[in-house]
Amino acid sequence: MSENKLNAAVRTEFGKGAARRARRADLIPAVLYGHGTAPVHLNLPKHETFLIVRGSANKVIDVSFDGTTELALVKDVQVDPVLRVIEHLDLVIVRRGEKVTVDIAIHTTGESAPGTIVTAELQNLTVHAPATSIPESIVVDVEGLPEGTIVRVADLKLPEGVTTDIDAETAVVVVSTPRGEETAEEAEEAEEAATEA
Questions:
Q1: CATH 3.30.450.20 fits 100-181, yes or no
Q2: Element (H, E) at 17
Q3: What DSSP string describes 138-183?
Q4: What is the pLDDT of residues 4-61, one digit of tens each?
Q5: pTM (two decimals)
Q6: Which CATH fold topology does 4-94 show?
C-alpha cells in the first residue's frame, strides 16, 4: 500500500459558518477519533485530500498536526450532491498490525459463457483486514462460466490476512440465461395473433 500523507491544521472554529470559511480557503473540515483519544477537529488541504480519497474507499492516511502524526482510516466522506466536492471527512485512528472491519467492493472480470448474463448478488463484502493493507476490491473471474454457476463467498480468493464473517454459502455472483428476450418474442407472437383474429 502506498503511503498517503497529509499535513493538517487543528480547527479552533466550529459551526456552519466556520466550515464555509474553511472551504473558501480550500480546506476540508475533518474529525479524527478512536483508540480512546478525544476527537480532534482538523482542516485538511482540499486538493491533496481529494487526490487521496477519490475513486476508492478505505484509504489509510498519515495525518500530521501539531507535531503529531496519526495513522487514520477514512471512515466517512460527505460529498455535496450538486457540486460533487468533499464537505467533511471522518477519520478513525488505526495502528499498524491491527485489523479493521471494512466493506470492500466486489468486481467481476471476464465474460461468462455465450448467451448468459452475470448477476451480482453482493456488491460489497464486509471483511477484517490489516489496517495497512486493505484490498482495493475483490475480483471474481467469470470467464467462460456456464449457466447455473453460483459463485459463493467460500469460492472467493481473499488476500492474505483478510477474513470475513459472512456465511460461506452466501451467493456472490450468479450466471443465468436471460428470460427477457423470450418474453418479448412471446409478446410479439401474441400481438400478431390478436391482430389476425
A1: no
A2: helix 16-24
A3: EEEE-TTPPTT-EEEGGG--PPTT-B--S-TT-EEEEEE--SHHHH
A4: 899 999 987 777 777 777 777 888 999 999 988 899 999 999 999 999 988 677 999 9
A5: 0.75
A6: Ribosomal Protein L25; Chain P (2.40.240)
